[in-house]
Amino acid sequence: RPTKYVCMLSLPLLAPPANVYVYAQEALDPNVIWARRVGMWTVAEAPSRTVDSVAEVRLSLRFERPAAAGPGLVQLLFFHSSELSLLGTTDSDGRRALCCTDRAAAAGACRRAGMLVVRGDGEADEQQPGVWVRDVPFRGPEATGAVDATVRVSRSGVHYLLLASCAPSTGSVLVSGSTAWLNPHGYLPAELYAFLPFFGAMAALYSALLALWVGLCVRHRSLLLPLQVYIGGVILLGWLEAVTWYRDYDLFNAGGSRGVVPIVLGVLASTAKKTVSRLLLLVVCLGYGVVRPTLGATASRVCALGIAYGVASALHDIAANVSQLSEASAPLRLLGILPVFVLDVLFYW
Description:
Blueprint: E1 4-7, E2 20-28, E3 32-40, E4 56-64, E5 72-80, E6 89-90, E7 96-97, H1 102-106, E8 131-138, E9 144-152, E10 157-165, E11 173-182, H2 195-219, H3 226-255, H4 260-285, H5 298-322, H6 330-348
Parallel strand pairs: 1-3
Antiparallel strand pairs: 2-11, 3-10, 4-9, 4-11, 5-8, 5-10, 6-7
């Protein structure tokens, strides 16, 4: 039976991303491998750190077999992405497998069936300084097992954590507990950390720009055009967008998880700014506020286009941020992107 892969990356399906992963009696079946991938910094190379900063992954997991009948094994592996080549073997048909099967063991591709293949031998980690391996054996009818460990990060880059059940005799295993990935700056994955100072700086710049714009509008209020008020509204929406996203990443960094509500608020703020910006550009191109005091009958069509774009863009962006839209099928991705693309073309046409 071929090995199946259940990949749970930084953005789990239908759930916002997190760096504290909680398992609640989730079933790990035989010949299935769960994989998590997170960017990590070492303490020395981190862009931000404190005196007591650490770079580590904390594992606290419990394993239970509801129908234990014989011996079994669950394995955990933690390694840097550069060590992916140390895992797995290729059979005579050219297919790559991470689990050592009876056929592969008989052919000499690996040494022991029912285990992950690490550097081609499937043995323990004494000879694998770059790959951390922890076995959770079930002896006989034993039904429970546990792992409580802390793994230090010695190299910056993308790291993987695998939970594998390669032996069919293990049966279904219920996994409970949590894994916490701690970077020196907090819980934010290394690939997302740059967003925190970026949105902080953007919020500060928008604050200064908004204060300047309001001051100028108050000073020249007798000469104001409606367009200048609308420009102030766009600046306000930009400030709201930056503050919302900064707060979202700050909470993520502090607590290790992201709620759906902050993400949706950030997406809606971004969508509102994009929509109003496009509408403002469109009405200026139509001459409003410059050579035309009103848009007349065109106003209703402009409003309809803006509402349609806002709804389509909000739905697409929420789906892309809250769920794994990138892992969806091509037709489903096209269904989300096509309306936004068409409406963007209409705006600029």
